[in-house]
Amino acid sequence: MGWWPFSSTTAQENATKLEQRQLPVPTTATPIPPAQNASTPLPETKDTAASTQPKRPLRYSESQTQSELVKGWQSYQDVLKPMIWPHGISEWPAFGLSALFIASSPFPASVLPGLPPRMARLAFGGLFATSGLAIQSGDEWNGASIATWWSASHVVLSSIYKTYRKEMAKKLSKPPPVTSSPFAWVLTSATIATGAAYGITL
After folding, report:
1. How far is CA 140 from CA 132, 135, 143, 147, in A?
2. Given pLDDT bands bounded at 50, 70 and 90, which one contains residue 23?
3. Cα(124)–Cα(138) distance, rounded to whole angstroms?
4. What is the pLDDT of residues 92-120, one digit of tens each?
5. Measured by CB atoms within 10 angstroms of the end CB, which terminus of the chain is less buried, N or C?
6. What pLDDT was estimated at residue 27?
7. Is the pTM of this model over 0.70?
8. Per-residue pLDDT for 125 more than 70?
């Protein structure tokens, strides 16, 4: 009989319960990894693998390339501008080129082969005179821009006009036009030199 008068448990049952309570409860032990020595390499992760990869060279953007070109052009300007214009930008090259164009305008292209038509020469003379007046009045940038632009235009239009005359002579079965006169070479060379001299200041 147990200690409780109405209990039906026996002493043997009580002993078995005590033994079950005293038995150790099995636990799941987690394995402890062995200590890593300094010689054993650590496992690579994504971050370490990405850091060890060689970095690709960065490409320059268009804005960076343009800024480098501008800096290079400015360095050329700083060197060449004092050499071409030691006393500042002058209006006399534009006036001189204007005088050459106006002086050649009365003569037709048959007398001075290699030149554009007379009205074109007269117009170029007026444009270069306008460029000289702009520089003389103090507007150097606009004056130099006019001279540079119309110098390039004269060279392009002259080459187009020569090609047109040659093609027309072939179609009409006429002899090819006479080669350019010395005055035409002088006028073209003066135009290129004037345009380059004023263009370096822009």
Report:
1. 9, 4, 5, 11
2. low
3. 22
4. 999 999 999 999 999 988 888 888 889 99
5. N
6. 56
7. no
8. yes
Coil, helix or strand at residue 162? helix
Hey, where are the domains in the chain? 80-199
> Whole-angstrom Cα distance, residue 90 to residue 147?
12
- The neighbour count for residue 6, using CB atoms within 10 Å, is 6
Ramachandran region of residue 84, left (φ > 0), alpha (ψ -120 to 50) or beta? Answer: alpha
Residues 6+ apart with CB under 8 A from 105: 118, 119, 121, 122, 125
CB 94 within 8 A of CB 194: yes
- Six-digit token pair at 152? 């390039």
- Please compute the mean of the pLDDT values over residues 129-156 and round it to a whole number: 94
- Residue ranges in the chain assigned as alpha helix (H): 11-22, 46-52, 62-84, 92-104, 118-136, 140-171, 182-199
Q: How many CB atoms lie within 10 A of CB 131?
A: 29
Contact between 90 and 135 under an 8 Å Cβ cutoff? The reply is yes
Pick the more confident residue, 112 or 121: 121
Amino acid at 164: Y
Instruction: Please give the residue that has the higher pLDDT: either 127 or 13.
Output: 127
